[in-house]
Amino acid sequence: MEDVWAGGGNLGPSIEYFVRGMEVGNMVFMQYKTFHDGSREELDIKVIDTGIGLERVAWIANGSPTSYQDTFRIAFDYCIDVLDMKVDDELWARFGPLSCTLDVDEVEDLDATWKEIAEKIGEPVEKVKAGIQPVKELYIILDHTRTILITVSDGALPSNVGGGGNVRNILRRCFAIMQKNGWWDKFGMEGFLQIFEKHKLDLEGIFGKFAEN
């Protein structure tokens, strides 16, 4: 897909490539320097900014319904076992190519978009939401807890300032999602901390052994 990307004072045409509804990578042809008044001038040195999602390449190679099942393999299996959650891989495989239409920045009526997706895959919208939403929220928790693991391992701590505030906010979001779904009753704090231990196992091949705490 052809597009335009701007950021950091630079701008240029871009190409984004998608597989089954997910952006796998992009190339931005940095051509202009931009100014606050909207004007621009040609860059003396033009570069091609390339981004490729390593986890998404694994998803393509493995043919999994989502990249998260590859990225969080051990942690994901642990969580669905604790929650006794059933994952409809066939539904996710059909939903995946259409999921990119649920973009809050682009869509005015998300409920209408859910209905359109349900019609295209031939299922009632209630069934689609029931099969997608809880798993999606589990993916959020897995993504956030991995972020917390890495930042804390690098020396950061939750706080009310700077990057520590980001750590605190995503930790709070995990708590809120778990509270809303009644998942605290199944995990407890000890079970929640085990998610981090499972992330360590998933990442061990890249990072090696993590510290005990």
Protein topology:
Elements: E1 2-7, E2 10-19, E3 22-34, E4 40-52, H1 54-62, H2 68-71, H3 73-83, H4 89-99, H5 110-121, H6 125-153, H7 162-181, H8 184-207
Overview in brief:
The chain is of the alpha+beta class and 213 residues long. The chain has helices at residues 54-62, 68-71, 73-83, 89-99, 110-121, 125-153, 162-181, 184-207, and strands spanning 2-7, 10-19, 22-34, 40-52. It is globular.
Q: Please give the domain count.
A: 2
Overall morphology? globular
What is the helix content?
A: 55-70%
According to DSSP, the number of beta strands is: 4
Strand content: 15-25%
What class, by secondary structure content?
Answer: alpha+beta
| Main sheet strand line-up | 1-2-3-4
Mean pLDDT: 91
In angstroms, what is the radius of gyration?
20 Å
Largest sheet: 4 strands, antiparallel
- Are there runs of 5+ residues with pLDDT below 50, and where? none
Spatial gap, N to C terminus: 44 Å
Number of helices: 8
Helix-strand pattern: EEEEHHHHHHHH
Can you characterise this structure?
The protein has 213 residues and is an alpha+beta fold. It folds into 2 domains: 51 residues, no CATH class; 144 residues, no CATH class. Helix content is 56%, strand content 20%. The chain has 8 helices and 4 strands, in the order ββββαααααααα. Strands 1-2-3-4 form a 4-stranded antiparallel sheet. Strand 2 and strand 3 form a beta hairpin. The chain is globular, with a radius of gyration of 20 Å. It starts with a strand and ends in a 6-residue tail after the last helix.
